[in-house]
Amino acid sequence: MDQASETLFALKPVTFRYKKGIDPQGIPQFGLVAEDVEAVNPDLVVHDKEGKVNTVRYEAINAMLLSEFLKQHEAFLKEQGKIKEQDRKIQDQETTIAQLRKEMETVLGRLKEHDSEIQKVRDQVKINNVAAQFVSSNQ
Question: pLDDT tens for residues 36-60?
């Protein structure tokens, strides 16, 4: 059933009404035109005794649809797994970013403290220089 997708995608569903003799109410039906199906895949139709296309093998098409559905479902589950993994990675990254922000705030706080201490030392050095100049000029 590897090529079920190509076959299924090539089929063209139609709406139709049976002739009054078959369905007097003319209820809309959904299906496939057997000759069109034969052109896509001859194994999906039944021929009459004269070799003419008689009907579509809907049971085969149903099996192909089920196979295709299961393939798509498996692909969907894989994608869901990838999304969950990406969500987990994003959460990990957000946690890391939050930790780095805290660490940066701590570092910036310490840097400001150091700047303040350096400024105090500079101010003290200036005071000492002024005092030393005052003392030397008075002598």
Answer: 999 999 999 999 999 999 999 999 9
Burial (CB < 10 A; 0-12, 13-18, 19+), residue 51, is exposed
Which region holds residue 26: left if phi is over 0, alpha if psi is between -120 and 50, else beta? left
Query: The pTM is what?
Result: 0.63
Cα–Cα distance for residue pair 132/126, rounded to 1 Å = 10
